[in-house]
Request: fold
Amino acid sequence: MTSRPSKSSADALGLIAGAGSFPFLVAEGARKEGRRLVIVGLRGFAEPGLKELADSFYWSGVVRLGRWKRIFRRERVGQAIMAGRVRKADMYGRFRLLRYLPDLTSLKVWYRKARDKRNDSILQAAADELAAGGVTLIDSTRYCPQALAQAGVLTAKPPNERQWQDIRFGWRIAKEIARLDVGQSIAVKEQEVIAVEAIEGTDEMIRRAGQLCPQGGWTLVKVAKPNQDMRFDVPSIGPGTMDNMHAAGGKVLAVEAGKTLLLERERTLDLARKYGIIIVALSGELSVPGGMPGA
Reply:
């Protein structure tokens, strides 16, 4: 644990940090607004550099919910944010109990309080457990709304008519699998589904799409859930998405405006231009400023 003098702990905001740049955006935004920041870095996921942005910093296991509660109680945290990736697929690996050593609180949530093991169910049960300890989870984009993709074609070149057809085709299917909390992304080409995201996550699904469609030229559609809870599991894209799509032959990326994080925006768009990948952000009603062919 590291700490440094700061404002009254009555103003404390908790940040449960996983992998990637999203926790940095939250931390920087919270500090700009004068919040005292208590970060719980998930060991094996969070970046050590987050310590520099924290008033108090603690490492914790990813399934040590009881420890999170104790830390937040000690630091007088009343609100908290979850930000950053955690690979849920690892939870089903061999020797998972020995690898992650869940505490009793986490076991209770996993086996008794969550109605099933889908992301929404697990995260809602975790949020309820934190709330019972006096900590309210809030919108994860509260301190970085500028990172949300705005509606429009985000690259210089728009999709052509064939690509728009794939976007329209894929969007409705993606919305349905998101509603069922199966995943939030699919890969399509010529109005055929190539790959569907499930527990493995978007990056692994992209790699699989490249294996199944080696000629490339396919479209990735990534959407929010119909009633997306912005406290957790907010869809995101970033430089890694561009690198993976390029390696796998993807050429178009359609995301949901206002509900998708565009991480490291300039770098992501620079890579899209370099790789010839088109990015478009659409509203939930499948619309884009300036119109969409055939919509």
In short: The mean pLDDT is 90. Residues 161-179 form the longest helix (19 residues). The first strand starts at residue 2 and ends at 3. The two ends are 54 Å apart (CA to CA).
